C-alpha cells in the first residue's frame, strides 16, 4: 500500500534536530503492517535509559501487539474518538507511573520521569521510522485492573505506535485534523521569567 506522506515538519523559531522537528502524532496507522520488533525494542530501550530522579525508574509499560487479547483490552480502555483510530496501530502501550516504592515511600516525581521515558521512546521510534501518538482519553481504572498491574501504579497514558497509515481510511473530521497546520504558542509565552 502506498501511503501519501504529509510534510509535518514544524516551523521552529530556532533550528532543532531533524528528528525533533519532524516528529508528529498521526492518527492514521497501517492496520495491515506487522510491527518491526527490533524497532519496537529500540524504542523501549530508549525509554529504559531516560533519566529519572535518584535512578528510581518509576515507569512501567504494558506492550500490547495488535491481534492479541491484551491489545483488545487496552483498546477497550480508550475513550472518546481515540476508539475510532488507535486500535489500528500495531502496538498499544499503556504507560504507568510508579507513585510509591515497595515500602510505600512516595515517588512525587514519578509522572515527570514517566514523561521523560515516553519522550525518549517517541524520539527513538520516530528516528527509526515508526510513529507514536499519546492519548490522555483513557479509562485509568480499566488499565489499572489489567493483570500484573500493582496497586502502586497509576495509568497515565496509552501510546499508539506503528507504521503510518493512509489518512483516507480515517473519518472526515479526523482527516481534517491530520491535515491541519501544526501550531504551538510562541516560545516566549512558555517562559515565565528569564534573566
Q: Overview of this structure, please?
A:
This protein is an alpha+beta fold. The chain has a single domain (29-179), classed as NADH Oxidase, CATH 3.40.109.10. Helices cover 30% and strands 15% of the residues. It is built from seven helices and four strands; from the N terminus they run ααβααβαβαβα. The longest helix is centred in the middle third of the chain and has 18 residues, at 110-127. The radius of gyration is 17 Å and the shape is globular. The model has no long low-confidence stretch (mean pLDDT 93).
Which terms would index this structure?
Nitroreductase-like; 7 helices; 30% helix; 195 residues; alpha+beta; globular; oxidoreductase; single chain; Nitroreductase; oxidoreductase activity; NADH Oxidase
Amino acid at each position: 500500500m502506498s501511503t501519501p506522506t504529509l510534510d509535518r515538519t514544524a516551523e521552529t523559531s530556532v533550528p532543532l534536530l531533524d528528528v525533533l522537528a519532524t516528529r508528529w502524532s498521526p492518527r492514521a496507522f497501517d492496520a495491515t503492517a506487522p510491527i518491526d520488533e527490533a524497532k519496537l525494542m529500540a524504542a523501549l530501550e530508549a525509554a529504559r535509559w531516560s533519566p529519572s530522579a535518584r535512578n528510581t525508574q518509576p515507569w512501567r509499560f504494558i506492550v500490547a501487539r495488535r491481534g492479541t487479547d491484551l491489545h483488545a483490552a487496552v483498546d477497550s480502555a480508550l475513550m472518546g474518538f481515540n476508539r475510532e483510530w488507535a486500535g489500528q496501530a500495531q502496538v498499544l502501550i499503556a504507560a504507568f507511573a510508579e507513585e510509591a516504592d515497595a515500602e510505600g515511600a512516595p515517588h512525587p516525581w514519578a509522572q515527570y520521569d514517566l514523561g521523560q521515558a515516553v519522550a525518549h521512546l517517541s524520539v527513538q521510534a520516530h528516528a527509526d521510522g515508526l510513529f507514536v501518538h499519546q492519548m490522555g482519553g483513557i479509562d485509568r481504572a480499566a488499565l489499572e485492573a489489567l493483570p500484573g498491574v500493582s496497586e502502586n501504579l497509576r495509568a497515565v497514558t496509552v501510546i499508539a505506535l506503528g507504521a503510518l497509515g493512509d489518512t483516507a481510511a480515517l473519518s472526515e473530521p479526523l482527516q481534517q485534523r491530520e491535515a491541519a497546520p501544526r501550531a504551538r504558542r510562541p516560545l516566549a509565552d512558555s517562559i515565565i521569567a528569564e534573566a
